[in-house]
Amino acid sequence: MNILVTNDDGYMSDGLKVLSEALEAQGHTAWVFAPDGERSGQSHAMTLRHPLKIRKLSEREYSCSGTPADCVILAGHGVLPVKPDLVVSGINRGPNLGTDLIYSGTAAAARQASMNGIPGIAVSLAEFSAPFRYAAVAYTLAERLDELMALWNPDVFLNINAPNADDAHRFELVSCVPSTRLYHDTMKIFDGPDGHSYCFFTDGRVETVKAANTDEDVVSSGRASLTRVLVYPQAANRGGA
Question: Which of 21, 75, 207, 232, CA to CA, is 20 to 30 A from 2?
């Protein structure tokens, strides 16, 4: 398959490179088309009011000045010489559990793929501190790709989160539902000499509502969570999830 690999951490991220290598090792062709810098927390933002800059980095590697969603949209409009059969977004540095999906650029790329009629998978490593071991989840996904694609339909995208495990590990993928996450943000505000006030988000705290069979519950037990996330709200009435 021709697989578009993108992310919100930028085309230079280790997670994207390991994911591409794992897919290639299974005989697929990975096409990297990712932002030229970090776009974390930009959700499903699109660039509408100024041109996007695209740079070809190698035969199958491109960067874009826009967002993860922009990369998927552009790929679907012929920027790549092939149409992707699948979009895999990640591997994100840090989890995208439950309510995180609202803010996640990683998730937005997979959502946009499904909106374009292309299977979309978002994958994240639930770890904030180095060393980041991406290989275990990358190869779990690559080796079970047929199984995962069979779970996709145009009403959903797939979201995977995995703990930080040794490279040789292969995860059990546990179907579950998104958790509820509560964000206790902290902010510092400074008055500048130019008459403006400057606000900076500082280290806050995320609280997860504990519940059985949620993605947070699965990941905390050492397994990888697999959720089928609705793309369109009306899909719930069609039984799309």
Answer: 232
Specify which residues 152 forms β-bridges with.
none
The answer to whether 32 and 42 are in contact (CB under 8 A) is no
Q: Give burial (CB, 10 Å; 0-12/13-18/19+) of 160.
A: buried
> For residues 123 and 133, what is the distance between their CA atoms, to the nearest angstrom?
13
For the chain, domains (ranges, CATH) are 2-178+212-238 (3.40.1210.10)
pLDDT of residue 25: 98
Residue 58, number of CB atoms within 10 A of its CB: 7
Decide if 230 contacts 155 (C-beta within 8 A): yes
Specify the pTM.
0.93
CB neighbour list of residue 118: distance below 8 Å, 6 or more residues apart: 4, 72, 76, 84, 85, 86, 87
Q: Give the mean model confidence (pLDDT) for residues 89-108.
A: 96
pLDDT digits (tens, 9 = 90+) for 32-71: 999 998 888 789 999 999 999 999 999 999 999 999 999 9
pLDDT at 238: 67
Distance CA 11, CA 133 (A): 18
- Band (pLDDT 50/70/90 cuts) for residue 92 is very high
